[in-house]
Structures
1.
Amino acid sequence: MTGPAATPGTNAGSAAEAPVMLEVEHLVVEFRSGKERVQAVSDISFEVRTGETLGLVGESGCGKTTTGRALVQVQPATSGSVRFQGQDLGRLSKRELRKTRTRIQMIFQDPISSLNPRRRIRDIVAEPLAIWGTGSAEERAAQVRSMLESVGIDPDTAGDRRPQEFSGGQCQRISIARALMAKPSMLICDEPVSALDVSVQAQILNLLADLKAAFGLTMVFIAHDLAVVKNVSDRVAVMYLGKLVELADSDDLYRSPAHPYTEALMASIPEPDPEHVSTHEPLTGELPSPLNPPSGCRFRTRCPYVQDRCASEEPPLREVSPGHQVACHFPLRQLSPVPERPAATTV
Amino acid sequence: MIRPTAGRGNAGTLHFPDVSDLADPLLEVEDLVTSFRTTRGTVHAVDRVSLTVNRGQTLGVVGESGSGKTVLSRSIMGLLPARDVLRSGTVRFAGHDLTAMEPAQLRQVWGAQLSMIFQDPMTALNPVVRIGRQITESLRLHLKMDRKEATATAIELLRSVGIPSPEQRIRSYPFQLSGGMRQRVMIAIALACAPRLVLADEPTTGLDVTVQAQILDLLAAMQQERHMAVILVTHDLGVVAKRADDIAVMYAGRIVERAPTRTLFAHTRMPYTRALMDSIPRLSDPSGTRLRAIGGRPPDLIHPPTGCRFSPRCPYVQDKCREADPPLRTAGSPDHLFACWFPLVDGVPSGPSGSGQPVTLTTNGAPNNAVEAPAS
């Protein structure tokens, strides 16, 4: 487990044949804002295969967190379906949903506020077992011990303490331990490292990779930093203003991004190398308001390659190479020396 | 010791020469020590830090949470709590010793000559004051502008930091703006009186990577235009790699390595600096590449470890490291300082006993005591 060796389960080739665990079809999530309706997620479809990690990346406001919440039905879908292991979660009764949710757990961005400040660590971690009345008190205590150990928290010194005594990184470890107590098959991670220092971020990302292998987890990993997402994911879905704009194997996405937005996201990542020369223009402007999204392609207002057609016609998600989907009228040419796209109009 | 809020004595007007008449270094910090008295003991947050910043240059200060980088920037500014703080050492800025200044004198410096951009614009901005007034406040105080002139200047400033329709925006409250827009307003406030030095404390932490790139580019453009010096404080070496002239790496209240940026990256001497670089996920690495995380956490600054403070987490630790405190010294290049007994040479520790193999540790999710060294 040392060294930069590939982590088990992160090989896309093997996961491609695995059965589908989660299937999202035409998912729409709307919020009401006064009399108006805002579509936070507009008609997205994707699937997650058993054993794989799907990354969901995009800027604040792109709908990635809402999508994550809709996957566990914390946020009900306005239309469309989320099928988990064959069951349509939206059609389950409350009781059935509660039971199913033990198999699909979530961890959140702010590790400190997602733990109850008044409870002790051992009780926080034991709660999923206590709720379901699993095992005797002694058995539960033993499970809590072993889970805390596997996330790198010493149960003897930490068990009786409260969340405020721990750093952000340690609280995230505790949140992960709590999520795994119910023995889920799927873990949804919503920006689990964006509030942490790079040094702690690396520890948590390695921990998630280890736990994924140890517990045979399937993951959805949501974040705004493409470098982080790429590191942990087999496949990456890029979201922009409620839409899925590109979906590809993560190394493929990096080698040949087809959507101008993906290219721009890459250009924004600060490379820890003073000699590195960025080949792409970083993104300008801000995300348009989802109350009144641009017509046609939603990215056109910030796209350096925008054409007339982009305003009049919405580009559908289509396959440009096997397993690589993009929603763009003029996708960046795949691994070709001559770009097919029209010349960049200056922004 | 400075009590910024106390006293309103008339201190007379300070004289600051024009930028072109200033001598280098613009800022010279010598043996700065800041400690806090707490019920648990004294926290040595900044321990004998010396650094210099020249006119128009950028110094990156990099370290983890708890390394003392924020206390360092606040100590330079003189923005420390009045009670239970011990500060010694000197901070010479444009020919004046800030540590010797009266509060009334400091108020002439803050905003006008020396300003700060804080990490969280939501809490740093006043939530019940329109952003226009938060900018015009210092223009009227320091530059003695009248209301009309100050408002016109504020609109221009907002335009220059990329805020659309600034004529309307000056009437907005902070909560009506996005995080990126609020940070732009913070920059406009900090730059309003054309200061010579701006301290930016994690100005982009908590923002999206796309917005981060925009904010850092903006800061660099403003710096160039105004020939302003910047101290950019961050936990991410990636943020300063292409933006700083020099980088100072802090650990446990001390500077442990300092060099011109290219030298620091090309000839890293301190294992801690190397470890910080290695912990950043790179887009160019294949998916699933294991990150070389630094195990453990920065030490408790009430009882720092003896010897080298990084020794409990260092993969190359030797007995000497635990016994004796390595001084900040040079080898070869005079502007490259580091505090390590067995500095890295081409990624391998040097010295008589430092030629041993890096310690390789397994991690099954457990925090280990050292850097996860690459498998050889």
Note: The CA atoms of residues 169 and 200 of chain A lie 6 Å apart.
2.
Amino acid sequence: MSEIVVLSGKGGAGKTSVTAAFAAMSRNAVLCDLDVDAPDLHILLAPRNSRREPFVAGHLAAIDPARCDGCGECAARCRYGAVSAADRDRFVINPAHCEGCKVCVALCPRQAILFTPRTCGVSAVSDTRYGPFVHARLDPGAENSGRLVALLRQKAKALAKEQGRSLILADGAPGIACPVVSSITGATLAVLVTEPTPSGSHDLGRVAALCDHFKLPTAVLLNKADLNPDEAARIEDACRDAGRPILGQLPYSPDVTAAMAARQTLPEYGGPLAAALAEAWDNVLALAAAPKPQRNLF
Amino acid sequence: MGVMRGGKKGLRLAIASGKGGTGKTTVTAALASVWSQALCRPVLAVDCDVEEPNLHLFLRPVIRRAETAKLEIPMVAEAALCADCGACRELCQFGAVTVMAGKPLVFPEMCHGCGGCLAVCPTGALVAGSRELGRIEEGATETAGYLAGRLRIGEAQSPPLIRAVLARLSKVAEPGADVLIDAPPGVSCPAVTTVSGADAVLLVAEPTPFGIHDFELAVEAFTPLGKPMAVAINRSGPGTPELLALCRGHNLPVVAEIANDRVVAETYARGGLLHEAGAHYRAVCFALARSLAELPQTAREAAHV
Amino acid sequence: MNAIIAVSSEGPTLADAVDPRFGRAAGFVLVDPAGNVSYLDNGSSQAMAHGAGLETARRLADAGVSVVLSGVVGPKAAAALKAAGLTAVEGLDGRTVGEAVAAYRAGQTG
């Protein structure tokens, strides 16, 4: 089974439009949106028949006002600034800042702090016109995005195994921190979507370094390549030097927004972008199928 | 930290968005460049998008000071001191410390730095150590002060570094200076941590289906923080009326509308700033700076209507 | 060789398949030097939100195991096993428990 995750470092480079296009061309795949913080893939995939499940992870501390005597030990111990004085002899915890570390719970001399499991969002398995779709939404401001990503990947793998599907195709999160790290560990290939802008090439460098750090093979798709052809050429050179295959180039085009507005993937919308994406997708499949170095048993 | 009416304390504005790539950095960089000219007040630009800090690419500041930001985490001082009581393992909610074969074992990258294991270890087998979160850089451009965090590659947690940048901000901001904070994209803990450190919020939104969807998430996430909030529409196009209607529904003032113009995209791609894309855009940036300076006042009045 | 070998397993016997997972394995078949076979259920770790690998490693160390055979052992679990002086061997999935034990013993003597 191969697992392909589409990343970009920088937001707005076209990651989700590219993932949706790949989804439209995929055969026998489980689709997955790992951008649990601001998920958008469902807008193009139109999931139906969703089987939803609350996502419970970690805990939340709350002070029982009846038992709090205002000693302030919790406020002194909390390193997240989540505890503040409600009045002279009572403290309260701001759930938005509570890390769920349990320190206040364990050290409260009056055992006045409750520690309850926290619902951080919802996950779902749905049907789409391109196959099953595993997705989620983290509650605004919630923690544990990395764990939610890990849970979605587990669900996608179980589903692929159960239905005999050979590919998992996932839209990743922007950035390089927990949800991204959680998206890439143990995957087959990362497709890095970038654009020839100062931010695009800077962020490509950081997300590529992260993938290298976790020994995940990468390949690069250059979006909006004609916005700055010189920078595009520099990115291509840098990728070649680093041994990162280039999957293809896409022009800056109003078709991306027009297709989005029509709730269509680019292959459905048609036009020159669809053809370039078809070629890129062939390259992705060839790379994902390349034999991995065999592990030596003993 | 409220805004003082006398104008002694500056405005602290977070520039945020639900979706990445809507133009947060474009807007922050342009504002930082025109702010002091438009308002005759000093300004400090802060990059809290520590995973992918990009502000420096457009502002090109001179860096005067850089430091490593660290998180306090436990380390094993003396394994032989371990009493095998398991208190650290039972307390840790993040799987960062355990006891195996009577010896404490720390997984530094899992630690959230709560300090709990250090507080409960009865023997001193665990002591305070540190993990590098990234770097904090300080400097200036010709028009603005500059402060930024840069997350170490492989570091999974960005909020601790964001908190360190905000703590540094309180030390370096000159009295009376306004502060423009480029926030991380999204609506989860890094973005909320950043926005919590500001007095007012500018949401940069894009009128596409993705942009509108994520704009709604951002409004839902940031409204409970109770800060004055305004909207700048970037890459305005056919979806703009829908976005304007949503802003009206949420009672959010729209303080700028930037066209979906290839010239702007090309200027950005060359590393240029929005107000350099032509006289029209220069006027847009100046007007935006002036409206934002009034935002806390505007919001107070709107709340009293 | 005076070692108890534990194999992550989908069932309680030598004929069951090796469970490719370590922390979330259904259970472990234990084989002592005399060839006695017993089963250690791991269902409680399987259900954990996180930290399953560490909990499993502790369970095996407490059971006096010295060698662990599995499919993939996560980095934290591997560090925990090493700290407790256990040897972990990965990549044994796709076989039965009995075959995995035989392969390990053959690899060790050959």
Note: Residues 12-61+141-304 of chain B form a domain with the Rossmann fold fold (CATH 3.40.50.300).
